[in-house]
Design brief:
With 509 residues, this protein is an alpha/beta fold. It has three domains: 3-14 and 25-93 and 276-475, Rossmann fold (3-Layer(aba) Sandwich); 101-273, Glucose-6-phosphate isomerase like protein, domain 1 (Rossmann fold); 476-505, no CATH class. It contains 19 helices and eleven strands. The chain has helices at 3-13, 20-23, 29-33, 59-71, 74-83, 106-127, 144-156, 173-182, 200-215, 232-238, 264-270, 272-291, 298-312, 330-342, 374-379, 400-419, 446-467, 478-488, 496-505; strands at residues 34-39, 46-51, 136-140, 164-168, 188-193, 225-229, 245-247, 317-323, 360-365, 386-391, 436-441. The strands form two sheets. It has a six-stranded mixed sheet, with helices on both faces. A five-stranded parallel sheet has the order 4-3-5-6-7, sandwiched between helices. The longest helix is centred in the N-terminal third of the chain and has 22 residues, at 106-127. The radius of gyration is 24 Å and the shape is globular. The N and C termini lie far apart (51 Å).
């Protein structure tokens, strides 16, 4: 940690925070800590209202965090991200997911456009029946190769589904069998999503899917496969025809890969225009993040709040609640994005970090969560920052009372967490002064979903810069996998507990 960064942290640590009630005595607070992300124009204008006023940020804290961002080289790191420089220093590569949305180094944007055109042609050929009748797709991947498509398909295909998509990630055969039971093998295609085309869970599931097709009477099972990979040669060697291999660049990481050919099941399910709108919504946030400085940069401002609660208030978790059934998988998606990116204990230079890094991200769907975990949020001993996400426009055609009750509950929870309640009965006393933020979408369409995801990608990157870490590697994923391979190969002795478990399960003699 350089002297400027250390000095900025010392200044922040000396700050004396006020309560939320005290902070709201400032009539300008809402304007200071609210902002709007927008895209489109005229009748097609849309956006997301971002309200961080119910956090403990104030003008002094914001100024202190802006000083920290300057000392941490935020502007330079952001420029390097969009310029396609090798900011993933431990793996010596760039992180070019924004280029997939049309914002980045010119040559990378051009490459992404060409690969998108290749994917579009295959998607439209399938929709037009060129490959025969296709009613189902089993999409096999893991991590970002599965979480992103699962989220987007679930969110966008409830009103329109051109092809029934089943995303399978778990090596547990129950997951794959469930997909088999829901699909007619005669009209099913299989997408194999793997950056290296060697991921053991994905390739094992793929082999089983081909066996299912063959045993079900499909004469050419591998002819039903589409490969989504950064290693097209391996896919061809595995047997996939090169016309059904959809590559993506090595510089696109797994948890940032939805925008590449990993988004194939989304385009197949809801159509290319919807996938293109998702890219456009994300690109609007990219341009805001790239071109806006200081606390007016909304993902950066969110990172200021994250750092305040994690580093200065010792909060070990952050909760996310989507008051929209279509975003039921969003907390799961954010878990990987944030915890795999920033769950680190060393800086980008390999030195021990000077404080806490990523909190545990968790959450659920409102109003279900109100009858489960909100007891702890209101009256428990943990201070947990909460994010609420909701849409002004409903996602259903039922009586308006449904959506009105949904939104009133969302807004009421934020108000209740802040205000609390005093009671003579200790069991009915609520301390209040508990922080929350709200992202209120005009509607939850493809562009908005893209914007929400991109916002959190950039929020994650901004947090990483403020902490001085590299958010684009994930070596912590590898150790357990390596030991599993040793066990599978029959090699090595382990601790007494592991040996006993292996013996009891019949995995060793």
């Amino acid at each position: 940690m350089n002297d400027a960064v250390a000095g900025a942290w010392r200044k922040l640590e000396s700050h004396q925070s006020k309560t939320l009630a005290e902070l709201f005595a400032d009539e300008g607070r809402l304007e200071l800590l609210s902002g709007r992300l927008e895209w489109g124009s005229g009748d097609f204008a849309a956006g997301i209202q971002c309200d961080w006023s119910k956090t403990h940020l104030d003008a002094d804290l914001i100024a202190g965090f802006e000083q920290l961002a300057d000392a941490s080289g935020f502007t330079e790191r952001r420029s390097a991200l969009f310029a396609g420089e090798r900011i993933n220093n431990t793996e010596n590569r760039a992180a070019e997911h924004t280029a997939q949305r049309g914002v980045g180094k010119d040559s990378s944007v051009e490459e992404a456009s060409a690969l998108h055109l290749r994917m579009k042609m295959l998607v439209e050929a399938i929709h037009e029946g060129v490959l025969g009748e296709v009613n189902h797709l089993i999409h096999i991947g893991i991590g970002g190769s599965a979480l992103g498509p699962a989220l987007a398909v679930d969110a966008l295909s409830r009103d329109l589904s051109l092809v029934d998509v089943h995303v399978v990630s778990n090596i547990d055969g129950v997951a794959l069998e469930s997909a088999f039971n829901a699909c007619d093998p005669a009209t099913t295609m299989v997408a194999i999503a793997s950056k290296t085309f060697t991921t053991i869970e994905t390739m094992t599931n793929a082999e089983s899917a081909l066996k299912w097709l063959a045993e079900s009477g499909v004469s050419d099972p591998v002819g039903r496969v589409v490969a989504l990979t950064a290693n097209p040669d391996a896919a061809v060697d595995w047997g996939v025809d090169e016309t059904r291999v959809l590559p993506f660049p090595e510089t696109v990481g797994g948890r940032y890969s939805l925008w590449s050919s990993i988004g194939f099941p989304v385009a197949l399910s809801v159509g290319w225009d919807e996938f293109d709108q998702m890219l456009a919504g994300a690109a609007a946030v990219d341009m805001h993040f790239r071109d806006t400085n200081g606390a007016a940069n909304l993902p950066l401002r969110a990172a200021f709040a994250d750092q305040y609660y994690t580093r200065l208030r010792g909060c070990q978790t952050r909760a996310v609640f989507a008051y929209d059934e279509r975003l039921g998988l969003f907390p799961d998606y954010l878990q990987q994005l944030e915890m795999e990116s920033n769950g680190k204990s060393v800086t980008a230079a390999g030195e021990p970090v000077s404080g806490a890094t990523a909190p545990v991200t968790w959450g659920g769907v409102g109003t279900d969560a109100q009858h489960a975990v909100f007891q702890l949020l209101h009256q428990g001993t943990h201070l947990i920052p909460v994010d609420f996400i909701a849409s002004i426009a409903p996602g259903d055609d039922l009586e308006p009372a449904h959506h009105r009750i949904l939104l009133t509950n969302c807004f009421a929870q934020g108000a209740a967490l802040m205000a609390g309640q005093t009671s003579d009965d200790p069991a009915r006393n609520f301390p209040g002064d508990r922080p929350s933020a709200t992202m209120l979408c005009d509607d939850l369409d493809a562009a908005t979903l893209g914007a929400l995801i991109a916002f959190h990608e950039h929020r994650t990157f901004a947090n990483a810069v403020l902490m001085g870490i590299n958010p684009f590697d994930q070596f912590g994923v590898e150790l357990g996998k390596a030991i599993a391979k040793r066990i599978e190969a029959g090699g090595g002795e382990f601790d007494a507990s592991t040996n006993a478990l292996l013996g009891a399960s019949g995995l060793t003699d």
